[in-house]
């Protein structure tokens, strides 16, 4: 992100978490509006939303070495943090209010993500592949708290991304930049429109060698929108394509990082995503007060992963000529059912887990939007329905080889097939169908008081067909109605109060349903071998707060807000480690709670802009649990940890503050921002038995110089003080793998190191 600072520049912003750039991303007659349903067109004045909203504009999403979308949210949105277990800029978990949106299978997905009304959550595991968002085409993003109209997974909230059109964004821009660690980036966007036809195209390419060893990544994204406007009708055809290769080598043992922060524990760890998607949207304006929106979409995603890990394979105690899973464990067999010979003596051995996932999905949506008065009162009504369906073909295999001197995977690559055992190939066909009907209505009871009532009914069908047997077969149906109600009241000009209650839910994903038995655990990220039932996850959120604005002389503007929230989750699903090396399963773990405080203030005066935010997020277990965490040094002799009510959920930052200041002159701009975050428990430490991932303070500097009206130089320094800090943590079998750089290392605590100081510079041309 080239412009790392966002200002509160609109005096109309009255939201509890509302950070706005100039120009604001969506304005009608100077009033900021936000979408209150997945499809565009269902807009509501921001100060009438009974909850927290953050909006960002395109100018805050300048591309750089990493994801501009995620970088902007991390630096500017209260309550948002990134937990980057993989250490790859486009593959972090976005955490908001203690809920996650992650590209990793097995993470409990608690946020609903939409791009121009199309769900970004993939149906197989509800995962979110951030690299598939065409960042060159982003017009605005809106992050909201719990709202049932956004459907499944909106336990903690929803993120809606709107893309550009030729009608809204005419003109062109070409950008090229280069920086540390072999980063190279190029981007083109161009929009043009006539009386009836409009065209927008955006494309970007990025390549990075990565600052850690064995970590190159390449991204290629393209987007085009062809639009038609005539009379009462508007039609848009949007096409999205991506071909990305990402490398994220994950946490490394702390003793290894103490010697070399660039080191990786094991490799390779790569993901290859290829996407093709088409979207057809239309709006019919029946009158000045009533409109109908409709949408169709179809998409195909092909994802391939390879993950190299240390293996628990070793020569069997009873027969040293063949391999067992641990020396007394089950015998490892190949595809023909024959025992695998001990081809590497005493080892060490390595495993290469490979997956291939092809998802074809399609859907439709329609909604009626009316601003017609009801009983003489101003009223905003939205009534809609959606269908999202998909087919997924999943294949997973484990290959056995040797662990090389640099802890990579070496041959021979023997396929492991323990028929009826914990390691076997998987072939799975999944079909999903989600149907939703929603309604939201805001009644303006008085000029100062607005009442919003919402509700959504969701029906989900998930069918699983085992392609190699019958163990994975399953047929699941879930039905749920979620209501919401809220009030906003203007106490006086420039000061208002809000309060709201909302329920949301998520269904167990096919990935979770296929790996829910402790008797048949599976790989924590890839493999699925059993199919007992899991319960629907439900969440109830209360929130309330104050928000205000004040205008002063000489253009002085102050916006501020203070909000409280509390979310109670029932039948939460958690990924639980098993006592089989590298395996685990999913289960309903009872009740969890997220609660906290969000505060922000922004000031604009002349050429100066500034903001400060603070968020406290307390995410805890509320049900006693006994979980397996065999690599956790605090576990008992059986490898178990005992979670008590009040223990903190891993990966969630409790305290986070963000601050920024900038100066805009006629031809140049300079901005400085910083994030301060407290520590959080490591993944796999639900009982909070070991030291946390340490907190940190990191600062970033950016600037630009306009040479002419159409040519601009820009640059940025990220991690300005070269701070050594970590973005995630877990446990690793350190004692079972010889670390040449750190002989004798045995501490299983592992951290994902954040990048050191980096510099980026580039040229931007407008036409």
Description:
The protein has 767 residues and is mainly beta. The chain has one domain: TonB-dependent receptor, beta-barrel domain (Maltoporin, Chain A). The chain is 2% helix and 54% strand. It has three helices and 44 strands. The chain has a 22-stranded antiparallel β-barrel. The protein is globular, with a radius of gyration of 26 Å.
Task: From the structure above, extract its key features.
767 residues; single chain; Maltoporin, Chain A; 54% strand; 44 strands; 22-stranded antiparallel beta barrel; globular; disordered N terminus; mainly beta
Care to give the gist of this entry?
The chain is mainly β and 767 residues long.
What are the SSEs and their pairings?
Blueprint: E1 27-28, E2 31-35, E3 43-45, E4 53-57, H1 68-76, E5 80-83, E6 93-96, E7 99-101, E8 111-115, E9 118-119, E10 138-144, E11 157-163, E12 171-179, E13 183-193, E14 197-208, E15 217-230, E16 233-247, E17 252-253, H2 254-259, E18 269-285, E19 290-310, E20 313-315, E21 323-325, E22 349-370, E23 379-403, E24 409-415, E25 426-444, E26 449-466, E27 474-492, E28 495-506, H3 510-513, E29 522-523, E30 537-551, E31 557-570, E32 573-577, E33 583-588, E34 592-605, E35 608-621, E36 625-628, E37 640-643, E38 655-664, E39 668-677, E40 696-706, E41 711-718, E42 726-731, E43 749-753, E44 758-766
Parallel strand pairs: 8-11
Antiparallel strand pairs: 1-2, 2-3, 4-10, 5-6, 6-7, 8-9, 10-11, 12-13, 12-44, 13-14, 14-15, 15-16, 16-18, 17-43, 18-19, 19-22, 20-21, 22-23, 23-24, 23-25, 25-26, 26-27, 27-28, 28-30, 29-33, 30-31, 31-34, 32-33, 34-35, 35-38, 36-37, 38-39, 39-40, 40-41, 41-44, 42-43
């Amino acid at each position: 992100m080239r412009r790392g600072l966002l200002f509160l520049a609109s005096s109309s912003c009255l939201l509890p978490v509302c950070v706005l750039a100039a120009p604001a991303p969506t304005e009608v007659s100077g009033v900021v509006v936000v979408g209150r349903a997945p499809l565009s067109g269902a807009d509501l004045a921001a100060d009438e939303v009974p909850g927290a909203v953050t909006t960002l504009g395109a100018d805050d999403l300048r591309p750089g070495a990493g994801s501009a979308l995620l970088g902007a949210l991390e630096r500017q949105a209260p309550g948002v943090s990134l937990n980057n277990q993989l250490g790859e800029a486009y593959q972090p978990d976005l955490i908001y209010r203690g809920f996650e949106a992650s590209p990793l299978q097995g993470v409990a997905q608690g946020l609903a993500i939409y791009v121009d009304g199309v769900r970004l959550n993939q149906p197989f595991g509800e995962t979110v592949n951030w690299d598939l968002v065409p960042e060159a085409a982003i017009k605005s993003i809106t992050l909201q708290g719990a709202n049932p109209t956004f459907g499944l997974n909106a336990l903690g909230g929803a993120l809606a991304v709107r893309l550009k059109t030729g009608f809204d964004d005419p003109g062109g821009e070409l950008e090229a930049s280069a920086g540390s660690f072999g980063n190279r980036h190029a981007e083109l966007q161009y929009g043009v429109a006539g009386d009836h036809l409009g065209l927008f195209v955006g494309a970007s390419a990025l390549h990075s060698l990565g600052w850690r060893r064995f970590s190159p990544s390449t991204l290629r994204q393209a987007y085009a929108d062809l639009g038609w406007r005539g009379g009462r009708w508007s039609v848009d055809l949007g096409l999205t394509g991506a071909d990305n290769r990402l490398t994220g080598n994950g946490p490394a043992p702390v003793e290894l990082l103490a010697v070399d922060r660039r080191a990786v524990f094991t490799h390779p760890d790569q993901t290859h995503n290829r996407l093709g998607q088409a979207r057809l949207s239309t709006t019919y304006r029946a009158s000045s007060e009533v409109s109908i929106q409709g949408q169709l979409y179809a998409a195909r995603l092909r994802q391939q992963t390879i993950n190299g890990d240390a293996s628990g394979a070793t020569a069997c105690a009873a027969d040293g000529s063949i391999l067992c899973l641990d020396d007394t464990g089950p015998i490892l067999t190949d595809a023909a059912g024959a025992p695998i010979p001990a081809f590497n003596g005493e080892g060490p051995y390595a495993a290469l887990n490979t997956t291939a996932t092809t998802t074809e999905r399609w859907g439709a949506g329609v909604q009626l939007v009316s601003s017609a008065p009801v009983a003489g009162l101003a009223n905003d009504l939205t009534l809609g329905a959606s269908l999202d369906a998909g087919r997924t073909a999943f294949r997973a295999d484990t290959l056995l080889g040797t662990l090389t001197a640099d802890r990579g995977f070496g041959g021979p690559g023997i396929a492991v097939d323990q028929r009826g055992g914990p390691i076997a190939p998987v072939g799975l066909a999944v079909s999903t169908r989600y149907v939703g009907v929603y309604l939201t209505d805001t009644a303006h009871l008085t000029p100062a008081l607005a009442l919003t009532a919402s509700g959504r009914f969701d029906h989900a069908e998930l069918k699983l067909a085992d392609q190699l047997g019958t163990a994975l077969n399953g047929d699941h149906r879930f039905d749920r109605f979620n209501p919401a109600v809220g009030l906003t009241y203007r106490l006086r000009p420039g000061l208002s109060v809000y309060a709201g209650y909302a329920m949301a839910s998520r269904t167990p994903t096919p990935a979770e349903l296929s790996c829910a038995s402790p008797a048949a655990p599976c790989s924590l990220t890839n493999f699925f071998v059993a199919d007992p039932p899991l319960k629907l996850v439900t969440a109830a959120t209360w929130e309330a707060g104050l928000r205000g604005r004040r205008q002063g002389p000489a253009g002085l503007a102050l916006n501020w807000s203070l909000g409280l929230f509390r979310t109670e989750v029932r039948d939460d699903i958690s990924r639980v480690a098993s006592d089989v090396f590298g395996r685990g399963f999913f289960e309903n773990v009872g009740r969890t709670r997220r609660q906290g405080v969000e505060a922000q203030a922004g000031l604009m005066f002349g050429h100066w802009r500034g903001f400060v935010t603070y968020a406290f997020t307390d995410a805890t277990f509320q049900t006693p649990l006994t979980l397996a965490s065999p690599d956790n040094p605090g576990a008992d002799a059986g490898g178990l940890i005992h979670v008590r009510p009040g223990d903190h959920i891993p990966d969630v930052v409790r305290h986070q503050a963000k601050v920024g200041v900038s100066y805009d002159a006629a031809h140049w701009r300079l901005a400085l921002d910083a994030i301060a975050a407290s520590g959080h428990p490591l993944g796999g430490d639900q009982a909070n038995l070991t030291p946390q991932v340490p907190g940190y303070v990191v600062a970033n500097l950016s600037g630009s110089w306009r040479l002419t009206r159409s040519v601009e130089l820009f640059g940025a320094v990220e991690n300005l003080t070269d701070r050594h800090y970590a973005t995630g943590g877990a446990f690793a079998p350190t004692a079972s793998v010889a670390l040449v750089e750190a002989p004798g290392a045995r501490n299983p605590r592992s951290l994902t190191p954040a990048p050191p100081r980096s510099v980026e510079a580039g040229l931007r041309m407008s036409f």
